[in-house]
Amino acid sequence: MYSYFLWRNRLFRGIIPSALFTIFMLVCHSLSAESKSGELVLNEIINMAEKNSPLLMSMNSDLESLYYKKKQEGMTQNPSVTIDYGQRKAANEPGAEYSLQFEQPIYYPGRKELKQLLVDNDAKIKEVQYAEANNSIRLNSIKFAYRYFIADKKRNHVKERIQRLSKMETYIKARPFITPQAKTDLFIIERRLLGLRKHFNDLELDASKNYESMNFFLRIETTPALSLPFFNDGIKFDRSELQKKSMNRNPMILAAKGEIEKAKTELRIANLEKYPDYSVVSQIGEDRSGVSNRFFDLGLKFRVPVWDQYQNKVGSAETNLEAKANKLTYQENLISMTFNQAFLDYEQSKVNIKLFNLSKLDDIERDLNFADVEFTKARIQLFSYLELENQLHETHHAILDAQLTHIESFLNLLYISNEKEILGVLKNANQTFEYNSK
Fold first, then answer.
1. In the chain, how many H helices and how many E strands?
2. 86: phi then psi, degrees, rounded to nearest 5
3. Measured between alpha carbons, how far is 141 from 185 in angstroms, rounded to an integer?
4. Contact by Cβ (8 Å): 247, 66
5. Strand partners, 230
6. Which of 114, 420, 383, 42 lies closest to 266, judged by CA?
7. Over the stretch 327-344, which tens digit does the pLDDT of each residue have?
8. Please, are residues 62 and 87 in contact by the beta-carbon 8 Å criterion?
9. Average pLDDT estimate for 207-216
């Protein structure tokens, strides 16, 4: 298993993408082919986030360290050697005495294998943590890319509003005669422009902060142009299949199962504690005092479990195993509830993207152009113009917010189920809509 970790580390540092991403690359190719030169699409964002993540590199190193730890646990203990020399006197005859002692510690049968198994348990938990971190990076890179993308669209839209009202302001000021009504209209537009500039500054801050969040994963030096799909309809997927995956592949549940296996191994080790390790002991030497004689002996050395039979340690391990089992039940109930709540959010987001469908973006532009023309012809009053312009602005923001809520609720479902494919983009690409502000 650990040789696999080392092989995977080398791939991660050189040859990746791995087979996990192959399907994603092939299906998303159609989306990337449609994007303009220099624009980042979904698969490129994911690849950059994975490639530039120091966290994944760190966790790979942790897995590699466990490989060496397991090898160390399997090593035979070093022997100990004692050399002894002295003088003795027997029958009034002094003489030299010397001896060589050798001791080889030996694990009780099964103890070494259990220690290696304990490292295996830690490695499996670390693998789950790696998979969770990897998927979190993938999904969060997409989430913050969408947040920055939509914040940028909102900022550009407000900038267009400022330009549009500035033209209205210039138009009123250019009238040969400024009537009290025209002057009042001018005051109203000036105050509206003041509020819009404040709104623009807030949106610019929001876009900048979301860019920093996105760039935390991408680690790029220049601001990229993004080409991300919007959705005319809800992203389709098999709920029962995704819910099943949430119970079988969720990192919290997998980690809890790994903790149970580790607790079982610790209990087996605790039960072995009362069976001590032993050592093979031998000695060879010579005594030259009195009648010269040589000696050699061989024996066993071990602890006798009289006072302490490690029952408290066994009881502690049994209680720990019970605690881990209860934690798994809790995690399963929590994930089941979380998935159902996330699915409710997703269903509501589907309703909202249909209510604020993408076709309304063209309607907004058409209505604004109509209002511009009619206002310059003095066919509608300023109050009606500003009210319409404000309502259209709120609708524009609502459309973008509905798209963002939809993709985030869907990504949340993918995170809960530890799903690595962006199912809607892959299987329902015909439902996407490329939005570019004019």
1. 12, 8
2. -170, 180
3. 46
4. no
5. 433
6. 114
7. 999 999 999 999 999 999
8. no
9. 94
- Amino acid code (one letter) for 27: V
Please say whether the beta carbons of 143 and 413 come within 8 A.
Answer: no
Please calculate the CA angle 355-361-366 and round it to the nearest 5 degrees: 125
Q: What percent of the chain has pLDDT over 70?
A: 86
Single-letter amino acid, residue 115: K
CB 101 within 8 A of CB 84: yes
Looking up tokens 């994930």 gives 335
Mean pLDDT, the chain, whole residue set = 83
pTM of the predicted structure, to 2 decimals? 0.78
Q: Residue 341: what pLDDT?
A: 95
Torsion of CA 196, 201, 207, 208, to 10 degrees: 170
CB 321 within 8 A of CB 260: yes
- Contact criterion met (CB below 8 Å) for 258 and 132: no
Which DSSP helix (H) or strand (E) runs through 173? helix 111-173
pLDDT tens profile 234-266: 777 888 888 999 999 999 999 999 999 999 999
Task: Of 187, 195, 199, give the one whose Cα is nearest residue 157.
Answer: 199
Does residue 278 have a pLDDT over 90? Answer: no
Q: Residue with structure tokens 């986030």?
A: 49
d(CA 70, CA 59) in angstroms, rounded, equals: 17
Per-residue DSSP letter, 74: T
Q: Which two tokens stand for residue 265?
A: 């191994």
Asked if 196 contacts 7 with a C-beta cutoff of 8 angstroms, the reply is no
5: pLDDT confidence band, cut at 50, 70 and 90?
A: very low
Written as six digits, the tokens of 404 are: 């963002």
